[in-house]
Amino acid sequence: LCIQEDGTVLIYNLFCEFKRHFSMGNEVLQNHVLEAKVFHTEYGTGVAILTGAYRFSLTTNIDDLKLRRMPEVPGLQKPPSCWAVLSQDRVTIVLLAVGQDLYLLDNTSCSVVTPPGMSPSTGAYLQMAVSFNYRCLALFTDTGYIWMGLATLKEKLCEFNSSIRSPPKQMVWCMRPRSRQRAVVVAWDRQLMVAGNSTECIHGEHRFVLDEDSYLVPELDGVRILSRTSHEFLHEIPEASQEIFKIASMAPGALLLEAQKEYEKESQKADEYLREIKDQKLLPEAVSQCIEAAGYEHEPDTQKSLLRAASFGKCFIDKFPPESFVRMCQDLRVLNAIRDYQIGIPLTFTQYPPWDRHMTDTSSSPSRLVLRRLYPLAIRICEYLRLSEIQGVSRILAHWACYKVQQKDKSDEEVAHAINQKLGDTPGISYSEIAARAYDCGRTELAIKLLEYEPRSGEQVPLLLKMKRSKLALSKAIESGDTDLVYTVVLHLKNELNRGTFFMTLQNQPVALSLYRQFCKHQERETLKDLYNQDDNHQELGNFHVHSSYSEKRIEGRVGALQNALDEYYKAKNEFAAKATEDQIKLLRLQRHLQEDFDKPYLDLSLHDTVSNLILDGHHKRAEQLYREFKIPDKKYWWLKISALANRGDWEEMEKFSKSKKSPIGYLPFVEISVKHHNRYEAKKYAPRVTPEQRV
């Protein structure tokens, strides 16, 4: 991160290639940056700014930018002598010193705080340091006094008087996770002082002379001391290493290491050392100590010596679980590979994440190598650690491909071919992600070529739409057979193109056109009409008007819509549909008159139901009129009439009707209907007239 005077923060990758920028707000822009600090919390990387107006602004996560303006410090007329960012209970706060006063700024207020156990005579604050885990705080005053305590300012751990009154260039914490030994490293121009509370190594302070100007970098388990020519790491010696290597140590690990060395010399002392360990029943502990100490060593020769001792001791233990030994060998091979000067990632064992951590974790070794574009070593480590292909090699190859598309010195065909040759059908590879990176780099044609290798249409189509290759996206969606995907593209085209161009595009894609028609039938009826008009599809236009007529509430509107349908059916030369529509118009008009004359609902009844209802209501002449006008078949009309008369119980009219002329349906139906209505007397009247054929 590079923070400019106007509050603009520039973000670069490890190769100093610009990625993006953001602003810390108008107030910072107007008052400029007086001082800035970059900090890291569980939420990500944050930036804190002290402006020329002596106000603080900060963001806790540069990837999810939310700017916060901290409360004003009352009466502050000059810059604070020192300040630091603290993280407590998931809240980021600012601690600043003005002379002998300490102020704590949270989201809403500014409060004065006093460290416990600090005398007013200790002087004004010159420097402060927060530990890597934000749990501890150190303060340095102009009298050379150092106060060490918890960052909550509720407990003092210890204090020292350095007798050096000049302001230090840097002050940082040096401590190991889960260790009770704490120390502060203070640096001046060519002098380094370590002050701590260890009972064995450091008690009070120790001073060292620096050959060059140096810079301190606090880390999880120690402090890196960087100069123009050297890189040193200052840290607390782990307990296992102390036990083995301190002078005249009788720890089981130390004895086992000596036993192994004597064994290599073929000396009988090896047996004596082993017996001493076994007599105390400490051999498993000795093996574990050697394995653990090997992890903290940087020199491969020392690592090998300790692991040989552990392997030697394991031979004399029944059922010693080998997992810890195997895992340590694996971890050290990886650590030694990345510590090599040609790679230059000098991780400590404490900083090295578990060997089975996924590639998705950016702190894992393969991820660190990928970010440095050291792809071959990253792949070899994944294969060595036997990470699954999807979590390991596939992810590295995808990163490589995303980097490859940024190379402008090769043609699109060469890059696409090289990527496909390397990746092939490797599980877990998404060509669409690589194509998206190519598109972001302005290489649209390369992105399209890469998408040809993407087997999942659902991944191809959205990117093609984003690249404004809608017609190609439509072809891919249709090839996939996924109707939802086709609908997505069609609706995108509808919003993107003008109406005429959109319809012409669909004409060349029958599948898309058919699906769009289905969509319009349910969602956009008027658009459906336009589609049929453009195609001169008179048959479907007639069907459209018939369907529309039923949504009309007024009879005139319904008849008008049916009249339009009639015209379209004539144009389509569909005589049957035209005749049926014509009859429906005639029926609607008759039903309206019947409704007006008899004040009963006849609209929307079928022709047969209309005739039945007229007979039921005793309007026989009107029923006869419909029978003649619509040319209802005789057999159908006779069935309708006798059923309606029987339902009405008008047996006299039924008998009269039976004698009006010869029945086209015979007389058995008269008998059956009479029996159905439990009138055996009437049934007997028609029984003699039933023909022998009907009786059979």
Automatic annotation (TrEMBL):
Transmembrane segments: none
CC annotations in GO: endosome membrane; HOPS complex; lysosomal membrane
GO biological process: endosomal transport; intracellular protein transport; vacuole fusion, non-autophagic
Gene3D superfamilies: Vps16, C-terminal region
Primary localization: membrane
Domain Vps16 N-terminal: 1-327
GO MF annotation list: actin binding
Localization of this protein: Lysosome membrane
Topology in the lipid bilayer: Peripheral membrane protein
Location of the Vps16 C-terminal domain: 429-696
Keywords of the record: Coiled coil
PANTHER family: VACUOLAR PROTEIN SORTING VPS16 (PTHR12811), VACUOLAR PROTEIN SORTING-ASSOCIATED PROTEIN 16 HOMOLOG (PTHR12811:SF0)
Protein name: Vacuolar protein sorting-associated protein 16 homolog
